[in-house]
TrEMBL record:
EC number: 3.4.22.49
Protein name: separase
Reactions mediated catalytically: All bonds known to be hydrolyzed by this endopeptidase have arginine in P1 and an acidic residue in P4. P6 is often occupied by an acidic residue or by a hydroxy-amino-acid residue, the phosphorylation of which enhances cleavage
Keywords of this entry: Chromosome partition, Hydrolase
GO molecular function, one term: cysteine-type endopeptidase activity
Length: 1531
């Protein structure tokens, strides 16, 4: 404060003092005077002028002591005095000890002439004690100062104890100080306090006594509550810590160090949970009930309320303390879910409090939020005012004033009320006003609470406002709700003065203030909301993390109702994530806790208890749904729940959500029963659920609820044959012959199904590919009972022979094993000339092949081609099909078929994208053949039948009308499904999106392959996209935060990384034109091939393989039977291998077990190659060649003359490309084509000599180019569905042995590839050389102009982390030997051995390094968790050479996650890791080989391909490493 302004202020002080001296009742002058004095004192205090501040305070109080009429007028000065003492104690300890320590305002500021024995001196002491809370000094701070005040009161005024009110207050303060200091309750003080309170009986005229008695009683009951509650929380804190240490020890003993961040999920028997289960909540709540009952009985009348309002200015201290205590009691009732009592107190307080009271808006907000939650109608006096006036508030002395805080609370309450009545537009406008307020952009603590509620409301608006949902900039509802929880946590941290909310249970004592309690209530509500939200979008990993927070926090708080709710959600999590054993245990635990809850006589009177029981019923039904107990669900819903909900008012908002969930579950159950064609349910009517009685009230996730109901409404009344009739698949479903299995041959689908029916446990019917393998085997391999010789004998057992021996076929690369055994397929029998064969009808064929199909035929029934032999077909004379005597009705058949087989392949409106208006089956073109045409018309006619064996052809006129009508109905249904899909694409529900996309695929067939690819790309990796977008949006929001709130310390975010990845991954309807023209043909090099593998959910044991390539070639699709039991086998072997890797000291026995598992892995891979992925399925794994692209016109001329369908032509073209390129023998090519192509097409191609000409062209091309050993491998980008990541697809025979080696790079989504391309090659930080270096002419052996992209790295910019756990001595020894023998390879690298780098070093790694090598246990997540990895931005090439470092954890059907995905999320180029546990010698040798090859210029994929051969255990260790990300090589 300048000298000129200081003098003017001092003049104003003198004038105001004179005015007050003249008129002591002039409150305005007193307030103005206090405001100026406060500013002076605050200026001195903040500038560190402590001596001047104290001197000014003494001078001014000396003058005011004779002027101010009441002690209450000194309250602002006392508050400033306490803040002054607090600051001096922190900043100038010496000055504090000499001048202020243990001295009160009365001793320091009040002149010595003042009589310290009169009543006014006592009021000074009491006022200073009270103002500690208004000075924002916590109860655990400055305890000695307060104790000195209490001692002064006791010494000077306690006397003989006749003043019961004063004695009670002194004892109360003493007890509070003892408790704050961590001491136990003094029994004598407690008994004396009770005696004095009993004697406090003021008369009806003693208003002051009545007010004191109210405050003292509420304070007394709160202390009793706090004593009991503090002991409980302290004991629980110790128990939680013990449980944590015990779980950590067990995890270490079980060698589960990689799962340390998730071990809480298995803590089924935590002692803390058991303690809470035996705890009665009413035992501690009884004191609060007594307190409120006492107030209701004595002070709730209108007369008493008026008295209290009138004396509020006379006795402000006692009244404020009474209000504060009552507010605390209401907040406790609210936190512990006692809604009725909380609402009564909130209303009572709002009746008492004046409009200017600082706590009124906080109470009003809590009251309205509770009213909205319970659908309680409030009178206008309890609602917020539309315009809050700043005139009622004192002039602001800081950037954010009390008016700013109250206005923000008022706007939040108004917006919540608008949202509750579904007035979204008004809610949006209110939030826009709030966003412009300064409190949102400041860094004050009050801003955390405001921003938390602002972002929470915005996230709900985004999911309910169609326009906001479609707006790209607002497509971040998950980030909004995460930000809301984050700011809520910051508000809680600030209130409790703790570092981390997750460390809240470490507090030995919890502060029970209204603000803390409201923050706890808001935080628990946010956590519950986030759990339910992540359930909806399929992010079960996030849901699990929040469940752990909710469970631990509710246990610590002894909030038994909250804990029971989180327990129900935990059981639901285990159900959704397909962990049946854990789910069953949690359901048992939930039933126990429900039985111990304190409930009213009538459950309906306690809303939360009623809701908890209803939610538990729902979770049990969810369990029944996943165990296929559909009849039980229908029985419960149609008998019990239907009648129960008819009478229910659904007042609680969560109860309305539960009603929606129950409704959807019931209708899904009916749909599943319809799929299974259960005869017992054919005539059973479905229950029609009524709309909830409170449908005009807001309910969470209404957008997804309405989408679910719209989808079910479309499909549930369709006949179960709808997909059979509408499937227009060109290709057969390939059914493997499982009679030749060699690995665990007793594990067959038949045995599995029989076991399910025989087992008494419901878990054996769990519909999950990752259900425990014990359902088939009982236990993991137990080799402990076997001797080493017995194990060695197992490895010498002969492998079961295959159906055919391998033939060596000459290829340009030399002798290559190739499997030519026949493949069992769903197809028609070979045609013969017999009359019986020619007269078989399509309907007979359908019945024949349905009997053969071991799949769920209610959902998909393919169109198949015949299984022809390689025998040549002799030329036949042309016959007139219209006059054929053997087929009198064939002309009518062709005519009818042509009318329903019109194709519209091209997209008529690519800007809006969707499917064509009609989809029909393909047909062969009938042509007039000349004399040189050898193709028989009879063969064409046969082909028409074989292409439609799954659809019964009708030839009568009325049948034609029925067929056309059916097609129109299917087209209409398809269009409605597409519209719903587009609407859902902006914010997809994971389960619904998958169901809907698969339904559209099965309904439409492959008539538009680009549509199928678009749907697969959209539903692939939804969980990965949601998780990544949430991280990116939060980083971006922090980067543009006006308040300057810093990012977490571990964060190293790049703006380019965020913008490119958000642009690529954000949810929106993906158009065919954008996918085809931008993502595929413009982005991918011509020779780059992608393969997508999708595992069907609606159809069991089927995967859809899709091969995509650029240069404007249509994708090719194929369905194959791929039993989930095969995945169970693989998981079983992996877990058994891990189980036997540790704890064996006998060297001979260890290697005997390793060789045994090597044999098991080899057999499983052989089964995968020889049984499941033989011809023609292998061609979908091999990248399609581009060598024949120059001959496209010649191929098209031939095919277009006989086939109308572009899809059929593309399919034939694909087989020609693959077989002629990868096979060298003309006979083998002919045999392969005769088996996989329609006979008429094959005959025509055979006669045209096209095969010979293309084969000659290939041979000339490769003869005139460099030797085969100089040709680089073909890069294949593999996009896998969630449950297919565990397989080593890189080890397929077709990838490693046919013609040229294939190098596979895995990625979660094609959209991520788009983001990586933009980030690496289009960003401003990339140099011009980097932007052009990603394409290179490195494959001159095929076509000189062909190019592929690589990411180039600087191998000299590397960092190594070797054995950070200091428990791999041989790995350290080998690495140091490698360093010394080949110092030139990594001499420029930095790194650490036997420890993990510091946080600063990690930041530098992500920022400046190109290669990161980790050699240790696991993936390093025990040192640097996946959540921390994701916070960075980097272009690293990461080598994680540890056990299971690339294994992805699967949670349910929609999410897999692990360290590879974490590095991809942070922008890393490539991650190499192991799919399962490996041994150190092999993996160390491979690591050193990779470094050598990278340094020499080879790509990482090439190096890994050759490095696998170095492993002693080729399958167990050599097959484990895989690569996620982009192809990389050294610059």
């Amino acid at each position: 404060m300048s000298s000129s302004s200081s003098s003017s202020y001092k003049t104003a002080i003198k004038q105001l003092m004179a005015r007050v001296q003249t008129n002591p009742n002039d409150t305005n002058s007193i307030n103005q005077l206090n405001t100026i004095i406060e500013q002076f004192l605050q200026s001195y205090r903040l500038n560190g002028l402590f001596s001047e501040c104290l001197q000014f305070l003494i001078q001014i109080v000396k003058q005011l002591i004779e002027i101010y009429p009441s002690i209450n007028d000194f309250r602002p000065l006392i508050i400033q005095w306490l803040k002054f003492k607090r600051d001096v104690e922190k900043k100038n300890k010496e000055f504090f000890d000499s001048k202020l320590k243990l001295r009160s305002f009365l001793h320091v500021a009040v002149p010595s002439t003042f009589n310290r024995t009169i009543s006014k001196a006592k009021d000074f002491f009491l006022c200073e004690l009270y103002e500690y809370r208004n000075a924002n000094i916590k109860s655990t701070q400055m305890i000695d100062e307060r104790r000195a005040l209490v001692c002064s009161l006791h010494e000077q005024f306690y006397g003989d104890g006749s003043d019961h009110f004063l004695c009670a207050r002194i004892l109360l303060e003493r007890i509070k100080l003892d408790l704050a200091n961590g001491n136990a309750l003094d029994t004598d003080d407690s008994n004396n306090l009770a005696n004095h309170l009993r004697k406090c009986s003021p008369s009806s005229d003693d208003i002051h006594g009545i007010v004191q008695r109210l405050w003292l009683y509420t304070e007394y009951y709160l202390i009793k509550f706090q004593v009991c509650y503090s002991k409980l929380t302290s004991d629980m804190s110790k128990r939680i810590k013990q449980d944590y240490e015990e779980q950590k020890r067990q995890a270490a003993e079980n060698n589960a160090i990689n799962q340390l961040e998730t071990f809480h999920a298995e803590s089924m028997t935590m002692e803390a949970h058991k303690i809470l289960g035996n705890f009665s909540e009413k035992s501690i709540m009884s004191t609060l009930f007594k307190s409120w009952d006492m107030i209701k009985s004595k002070s709730s009348s209108v007369y008493t309320i008026e008295i209290l309002k009138r004396v509020a200015t006379i006795y402000p201290n006692e009244i404020d303390m009474f209000y504060s205590n009552l507010h605390t009691i209401a907040a406790l009732f609210d936190l512990f879910q006692y809604y009725t009592e909380a609402m009564e107190i909130y209303r009572y307080l709002l009746d008492l409090l004046p409009s200017y009271h600082p706590s009124r808006l906080t109470i009003l907000t809590a009251c309205n939020r509770l009213a909205n939650k319970c659908s309680i109608s409030l009178e206008d006096k309890y609602r917020p005012v539309l315009n809050l006036s700043s005139r009622d508030y004192p002039k602001a002395t800081t950037q954010i004033s009390a008016f700013d805080v109250d206005e923000a609370l008022n706007l939040i309450t108004i917006a919540e009320n608008f949202l509750h009545i579904k007035n979204f537009q008004s809610c949006k406008q209110t939030l826009e006003i709030l966003e412009k307020r300064p409190i949102v952009s400041c860094s004050y603590a009050d801003s955390f609470f405001v921003r938390s509620h602002l972002y929470n409301l915005q996230s709900k608006l985004v999911l309910n406002d169609d326009e906001q949902l479609k707006d790209f900039n607002r497509n971040d509802f998950l980030a909004l709700i995460e930000e809301s929880r984050s700011y809520c946590a910051q508000d809680l941290r600030t209130s409790l003065d703790i570092v981390d909310v997750n460390r809240l249970p470490e507090l030995s004592q919890l502060q029970l203030t209204p603000l803390v309690l409201h923050a706890l209530q808001a935080y628990l509500s946010q956590v519950a909301h986030l759990i339910l939200l992540n359930f909806e979008i399929g992010l079960y990993r996030n849901a699990k993390n929040y469940l752990l927070v909710g469970l631990e926090l509710s246990v610590y708080l002894h909030a038994k109702r909250w804990f029971t709710f989180f327990l129900a959600l935990n059981a639901q999590f285990f159900i959704l994530s397909h962990q049946p054993d854990c789910a069953r245990r949690k359901l048992d635990q939930l039933s126990h806790h429900l039985s111990t809850l304190d409930v009213c006589t009538d459950r309906q009177q306690d809303l939360f208890i009623d809701f908890i029981h209803s939610w538990a019923d729902y979770v049990k039904l969810e369990y029944d749904y996943h165990t296929h107990a559909y009849d039980r669900i229908r029985t419960v819903c149609e008998t019990k729940l239907s009648a129960e909900y008819e009478r229910h008012h659904l007042a609680l908002d969560w109860h309305r959500l539960l009603y929606h969930r129950m409704h959807i579950l019931y209708r899904l159950t009916c749909f599943q029963q319809l799929r299974k064609k259960s005869k017992s349910n054919e005539n059973k009517k479905r229950l029609i659920w009524k709309l909830p009685s409170n449908s005009d009230k807001y309910t969470e996730f209404t957008f997804w609820t309405e989408s679910w109901l719209a989808f079910l409404t479309l499909i549930e009344d369709q006949p179960h044959e709808i997909l059979d009739k509408s499937s227009l698949w060109l290709h057969p479903i390939i059914v493997p012959d499982e009679s030749n299995l060699t690995c665990l041959p007793d594990w067959t689908p038949a045995n599995d199904e029989q076991h399910q029916y025989q087992s008494q446990q419901a878990d054996s019917k769990w519909n999950n590919i990752l259900s425990p393998p014990q359902v088939n085997t009982g236990h993991l391999f137990d080799l402990n009972s076997m001797s080493t010789e017995d194990i060695l004998a197992l490895t010498t057992e002969p492998v079961l022979p295959k159906t055919k021996t391998k033939k060596l076929i000459d290829t340009p690369r030399g002798k290559t094993p190739f499997h030519s055994e026949s493949q069992k397929m769903l197809s028609t029998p070979n045609k013969t000339s017999s009359a019986s064969s020619s007269s078989s009808t399509a309907s007979n064929l359908m019945s024949t092949f349905r009997n053969k199909m071991p799949i769920d035929t209610s959902l998909a029934s393919p169109i198949c081609t015949p299984n022809r032999t390689g025998k040549k077909i002799p030329p036949l004379t042309v016959a007139n099909s219209n006059t054929s005597s053997s087929r009198p009705r064939r002309a009518a058949a062709i005519k009818a078929d042509e009318r329903i087989q019109q194709i519209r392949y091209e997209d008529n409106n690519e800007n809006t994208h969707r499917i064509p208006t009609s989809l029909h089956s393909p047909r062969l073109r009938s042509v007039n053949h000349d004399e040189n045409n050898d193709e028989p018309v009879d063969v064409l006619v046969d082909q028409l039948e074989t292409l439609h064996i799954e659809r019964k052809l009708k030839f009568d006129d009325e049948d034609d009308e029925d067929t056309n009508s059916s097609m129109k109905l299917n087209e209409k249904l398809l269009q409605k499904c597409i519209q719903l899909h587009d609407q859902l694409a902006h914010a997809p529900n994971a389960k619904l999106m998958r169901y809907l996309a698969e339904y559209i695929i099965l309904l439409s067939g492959d008539q538009d392959p680009w549509l199928v690819v678009t749907l697969i790309v959209e539903m692939q990796a939804i969980g990965f996209r949601y998780n990544a977008l949430c991280i990116y949006q939060r980083k971006k929001r922090h980067n543009t935060d006006r308040s300057g709130t810093p990012l977490p310390s571990a964060t190293n975010a790049s703006q380019e990384h965020l913008s490119h990845y958000i642009d690529a991954l954000h949810f929106r309807p993906l158009t065919i034109s954008y996918l085809k023209d931008v993502l595929i043909n413009d982005f991918l090099p011509a020779k780059q091939v992608c393969v997508c593998l999708h595992s069907f959910t609606l159809v069991h044991d089927q995967i859809l393989a899709v091969q995509i390539r650029g240069n404007y070639y249509a994708p090719v699709l194929r369905r194959v039977i791929f039993p989930r039991l095969l995945i169970k086998k693989f998981h079983f072997l992996i877990e058994s291998n891990t189980h036997t890797l540790h704890g064996i000291t006998d060297h001979k026995r260890y290697w005997a077990i390793r060789r045994y598992f090597e044999q098991l892995f080899e057999r499983l891979l052989e089964d995968l190659n020889q049984v499941y992925l033989t011809s023609p399925m292998r061609w979908w794994w091999l990248p399609e060649t581009t060598i024949f692209d120059g001959k496209k016109a010649m191929i098209d001329d031939l095919l277009s003359s006989m086939i109308d369908s572009p899809q059929q032509r593309r399919f034939i073209e694909f087989f020609l490309h693959q077989t002629i390129f990868y096979l060298s023998s003309l006979d083998e090519i002919r045999q392969e084509l005769s088996v996989n192509l329609p006979p008429a097409v094959y005959t025509r191609i055979f006669a045209s000599r096209l095969i010979e000409r293309l084969l000659e062209f290939k041979q000339r091309t490769y003869t005139n180019t460099s030797p085969s050993n100089s040709r680089p491998p073909q890069n294949l980008l593999l996009f896998l569905d969630n449950h297919l990541h565990i397989f080593p697809w890189e080890q397929l025979h077709c990838m490693t042995s046919l013609f040229r080696r294939i190098v596979i790079y895995r990625l979660p989504s094609l959209l991520l590839l788009d983001g990586m391309h933009k980030y690496y090659y289009n960003s401003s930080s990339s140099s011009e050389a980097d932007r052009t270096a990603h394409v290179e002419n490195n494959d001159v052996t095929i076509i000189p102009t062909e190019k592929t992209f690589y990411h180039h790295i600087d191998v000299d910019k590397g960092y190594y982390i070797v054995d950070p756990g200091n428990d791999l001595p041989r790995t350290k020894e080998r690495f140091r030997k490698f360093q010394s023998e080949k110092p030139d390879l990594i001499e420029k690298w930095n790194g650490v051995i036997e420890r993990f780098p510091t946080n600063d070093a990690i930041k530098d790694i992500f920022k400046s390094k190109d290669v990161l090598l980790y050699m240790g246990h696991g993936s390093g997540s025990q040192f640097y968790p996946v959540d921390d990895v994701q916070k960075n931005s980097s272009r690293l090439c990461v080598l994680l050479m540890g056990c299971s470092s690339a294994r992805l954890q699967s949670l349910g059907d929609f999410e897999v996650f692990g360290m590879p995905f974490a590095y991809l999320t942070c922008g890393a180029a490539t991650i190499l890791g192991c799919l399962w546990d490996v041994t150190d010698r092999d993996i160390d040798s491979l690591t050193f080989f990779l470094l050598e090859q990278l340094k020499s210029g080879a790509s990482l994929g090439e190096a890994l391909r050759y490095g696998r051969e170095l492993c002693k255990l080729k399958c167990l260790n050599g097959a484990a490493p895989v690569i996620y990300g982009l192809p990389v090589r050294a610059r």
